[in-house]
Amino acid sequence: MAGKEIHYYAGGNTARGFRSYLDSTLQYMDRIFILLGAPGNGKSSMMKTLGRKYNDEGYDVEWIHSALDRDAVEGVIIPALKVGVVDGSGPHVITAKAPGAIEHYINFGSAWDTESLAKQKKRIVQLRGSIEQHLEEARQCFREALEIHDEWEKIYITNMDFAKADEITAEWIAACFGELRLNKQTQILQRYLGAATPHGAADFVPNLTAGVAKRYFIKGRAGSGKSTMLKRIAAVAQERGFDMEVYHCGLDPNSLDMLIFRELGIAIFDSTTPHEYSPDRENDEIIDIYARAIEPGTDEKYAERIQDISARYRAKMKQGATKLGEAKEAQDQLKELYVAAMDFNQVDAIRAEVESEIDSIARRFAQDSSES
After folding, report:
1. Mapping DSSP to helix (H, G, I), strand (E, B) and coil, where does residue 72 land?
2. Which residue among 11, 166, 185, 356 sits deepest, i.e. has the most Cβ atoms within 10 Å of its Cβ?
3. Environment class of 366 (CB within 10 Å of its CB; exposed 0-12, middle 13-18, buried 19+)
4. Which InterPro entries match (predicted)?
5. How far apart are the C-alpha atoms of 246 and 255, rounded to whole Å?
6. Helix (H, G, I), strand (E, B) or coil at 169
7. In what order do the strands lie in the sheet with 256-261?
8. How far is CA 276 from CA 107, 204, 206, 286, in A?
9. Buried b (16+ CB within 10 A) or exposed e, 90-110
10. Does residue 57 have a pLDDT over 90?
């Protein structure tokens, strides 16, 4: 029987530049294969093949998706084997802890025709420059969108009862954590709830919370303290030894959007645009911060101003998505140049070598499991 799968983003083009949490994702791995090369070298296809193989063999698999290309993955993790295979060619920067012992670098450059690529040097340099320019233009749009969002937040901050917001947080901690403490160090995995993509905002909330028994949907407005609530919960969870997945906002990585405590069977997340969901399971529960902690009538009082801010914010986010689309178009053209110069028989040989090593790890894992 196939194992479970979860999907998420580890990096994103945010209002604060490109930010990656790939190091966090890889911190508990014993073997990391870092694939080096250019777009179109077959790295994503190789990771997909490996991920599907081990998932079909019954292993749970984590898929790390590309925010720029929805058809590509940037990594595949097999938690039980403590194995990760990731694209290390950028823009992620992977901090090696023990090169050769944990991290194994695989250079796809051995499979390309350098003579053919040399003839395309000027075009390659041009396309890489174009990609980076469009990405920076997108990030600038997101920076401006965040500034507009700050205007939105000020409306609700000035109409907020912070004592009631603190009360909501305290109630949740008491109801979900009680007096429970675990005598261990917390394991924290940091990721993104969603990402800005050429097609707009995207997320994997339904998949990530599918195996969680109790889900809390935080409803509110910009500036109503949703992220602050999550940060306070995370601090308490860490102090009490609960493992957690911390999901950051794809626009502002300094803000939190979701926490998952799998050992407790609990997820709590910001369920507002652009990742707005409604309860559809018996144990789902809404936490309405607007209703409990915001001055009644605030929406109506500032309706015209909110409408203006909302329109400017959406326009700026759409402009950013367009710039990401232009970066994707340039990247697709760059891929074509490298695809034409690749010897994919050598790529298959590289994949077979990696697969053989993971198979060895899997055999040792099965043997250890049978003896314990």
Report:
1. coil
2. 11
3. exposed
4. P-loop_NTPase
5. 10
6. helix
7. 103-107, 31-36, 83-87, 73-78, 61-65, 5-9, 188-192, 244-248, 256-261, 266-270, 214-219, 285-288
8. 41, 12, 11, 12
9. eebebeeeeeeeebeebebee
10. yes
- Predicted structure pTM score: 0.96
Please report where in the chains the tokens 């994702």 appear, as a residue.
Answer: 25
Q: Peptide bond preceding 91: is omega within 30 degrees of 0, i.e. cis?
A: yes
The pLDDT tens digits for 136-178 are: 999 999 999 999 999 999 999 999 999 999 999 999 999 999 9
User: Residue 24 corresponds to which tokens in the numbers above?
Assistant: 């966090």
In whole angstroms, give the CA distance from residue 98 to residue 50.
23
- For every residue of 107-147, which 3-state class applies, written as one string? EHHHHECHHHHHCCHHHHHHHHHHHHHHHHHHHHHHHHHHH
Task: Check: CB of residue 324 under 8 Å from CB of residue 135.
Answer: yes
Contact 152, 306 (CB under 8 A): yes
pLDDT tens string 67-122: 999 899 999 999 999 999 999 987 888 888 999 999 999 999 999 999 999 999 99
182 within 8 A of 284, measured Cβ to Cβ: no
Nearest CA-CA partner of 108 in 12, 7, 32, 38: 38
